[in-house]
């Protein structure tokens, strides 16, 4: 099966939890015999005025039938167009959610009407495009708590896992790439076995 792992790229930054997460998932799926591509578009997290433009670049990307399954990770990768996609949300755009109005963590403030407009636009797009997912997973209780208030979660009709676990396995943490690879491979194998029993074509849906 052809699987695309869609996530953002931080230019000239090496390592990091999100990058390891995407690479580990790709390796695990490849070890099961799937053809995997990691699809990335750079995203400048420091840019306040370009948030909407950068986010909508993902919506303009149409993978169509090129991949049998698209797994989206970081905001705004879940805006991508695809015939079949699931979201594994690492985090939303926090400056517009839990860090909004916190000057030490976010440049956005309710005292600026344009900031409110950007926040409302992003949250509206999140609701709309996450509603296209066949399943939604999160990697933390904080993200799950935030997401559970989104209309998108209701539109997935129960196909949502508000937990820190991927099919019973806790998301690996820490610097050990070897341990992460083992965990991802175990997770992928468990999902493949479950999907096969259900007659599913996907090891990650």
The major beta sheet can be summarized as: 6 strands, parallel
CATH class category name: Alpha Beta
Quickly give the CATH architecture: 3-Layer(aba) Sandwich
Q: Give, in order, the helices and strands.
A: EHEHEEHEHHEEEH
Q: What can you tell me about this protein's structure?
A:
The chain has 205 residues and is α/β, with parallel strands linked by helices. It has a single domain (2-198), classed as Rossmann fold (3-Layer(aba) Sandwich), CATH 3.40.50. 38% of the residues lie in helices and 17% in strands. The strands form 2 sheets. Strands 2-1-3-4-5-6 form a 6-stranded parallel β-sheet. Strands 7-8 form a two-stranded antiparallel ribbon. Helix 1 (17-31) packs across helix 6. The model is unreliable at 162-184 and 194-205 (pLDDT under 50).
Features:
alpha/beta; 6 helices; 8 strands; 38% helix; globular
Task: Give a short synopsis of this structure.
With 205 residues, the chain is α/β, with parallel strands linked by helices. The chain has helices at 17-31, 51-60, 113-130, 141-147, 151-155, 177-198, and strands at residues 2-9, 35-42, 69-72, 85-89, 136-138, 160-161, 165-166, 169-170.
Sequence-ordered SSE layout with sheet pairings:
Blueprint: E1 2-9, H1 17-31, E2 35-42, H2 51-60, E3 69-72, E4 85-89, H3 113-130, E5 136-138, H4 141-147, H5 151-155, E6 160-161, E7 165-166, E8 169-170, H6 177-198
Parallel strand pairs: 1-2, 1-3, 3-4, 4-5, 5-6
Antiparallel strand pairs: 7-8
């Amino acid at each position: 099966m052809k699987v695309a792992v869609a996530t953002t790229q931080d230019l000239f930054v090496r390592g990091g939890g999100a990058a390891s997460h995407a690479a580990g998932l790709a390796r695990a799926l490849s070890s099961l015999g799937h053809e995997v591509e990691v699809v990335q578009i750079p995203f400048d997290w420091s840019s306040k005025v370009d948030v909407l433009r950068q986010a909508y670049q993902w919506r303009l990307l149409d993978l169509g039938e090129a991949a049998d399954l698209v797994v989206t990770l970081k905001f705004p990768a879940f805006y991508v167009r695809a015939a079949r996609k699931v979201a594994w949300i690492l985090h939303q755009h926090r400056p517009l959610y839990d860090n909004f109005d916190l000057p030490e963590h976010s440049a956005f403030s309710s005292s600026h009407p344009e900031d409110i407009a950007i926040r409302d636009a992003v949250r509206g797009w999140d609701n709309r495009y996450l509603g296209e997912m066949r399943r939604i997973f999160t990697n933390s209780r904080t993200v799950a708590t935030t997401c559970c208030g989104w209309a998108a979660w209701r539109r997935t009709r129960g196909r949502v896992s508000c937990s820190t676990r991927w099919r019973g396995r806790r998301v690996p943490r820490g610097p050990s790439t070897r341990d992460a690879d083992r965990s991802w491979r175990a997770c992928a194998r468990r999902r493949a076995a479950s999907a096969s029993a259900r007659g599913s074509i996907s090891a990650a849906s």
